[in-house]
């Protein structure tokens, strides 16, 4: 009897061992997932071209606040308007609850402290040249999560720009103007650098003097007398027609302005008054076409 009980217990133990081994060998049932989808990075920017790059290239990144572009077109629904790029509304910025804030190291230096106090990561970029513009966009793409969409779009835009190059180096004088005041645009600005990038000869490239903004040199009539551009490229933040009329009034008085009266091109402020970012190839192509058309029409 005792022997029989021992045999029964041994058989039961063996059965339990086999069942445990089988249970351990089977894959565990997956537990219901309680994790939420990855939260989109919330970005606020004080640079229109950065906001446009995000909207165009990466729907997984959420643009929550931006500044008005040169055209004055309203921002997309749901994006808070921060007003002027040079004097953004910081209260509205705080209300947008961004994870990342993008600003320009040259123009927004005085805002570095209040922007940093928001708790968001502050990314300072530099839009003063072509390479710096694309590098800044790449940095934004990295910070928001190595955005493949943004990186791909940036590389496509850069390649299109490289493909544009003049061989005859037309002489141009780029001026930034408002009625009664004109500044020469040097290669230390995005537009001046763009002109050199595609092969224009900027006759103001080596000018030095008082600069209201970095790279924009106040130009006198004495200096103008020494320059000999084939085309004057006139850029303005205000009404292009008003600036052109002022330029023509000055030309009628004589002096160096008179020499340029028939060689002035007023550029579209929507394209040229501020850095266009991913649309730099479009700006370059437009410059090439406008200057070529004016040259052949003389």
Key words describing this protein structure:
298 residues, alpha/beta, seven-stranded mixed beta sheet, five-stranded parallel beta sheet
Question: How would you explain this protein's 3D organization?
Answer:
The radius of gyration is 31 Å and the shape is globular. 33% of the residues are buried. Residues 1-37 have low confidence and may be disordered. It has helices spanning 2-25, 48-57, 90-95, 112-116, 130-143, 148-162, 190-197, 221-224, 240-252, 256-260, 269-272, 280-297, and strands spanning 42-45, 62-66, 80-81, 100-104, 121-125, 171-178, 181-185, 201-202, 211-213, 216-218, 231-235, 264-266. The longest helix is centred in the N-terminal third of the chain and has 24 residues, at 2-25. Helix content is 42%, strand content 17%. With 298 residues, the protein is an alpha/beta fold. Strands 6, 7, 8, 9, 10, 11 and 12 form a seven-stranded mixed sheet that branches.
Short description:
By secondary structure, this protein is of the alpha/beta class.
- Which percent range describes the beta-strand content? 15-25%
Secondary-structure element series? HEHEEHEHEHHEEHEEEHEHHEHH
Q: Which regions contain 5 or more consecutive residues with pLDDT less than 50?
A: 1-37
Overall mean pLDDT? 84
Number of strands: 12
The first-to-last residue Cα distance is 123 Å
Give the C-alpha Rg.
31 Å
Portion in helices: 40-55%
Structural class, please?
alpha/beta
Shape designation: globular
Question: What is the tally of helical segments?
Answer: 12
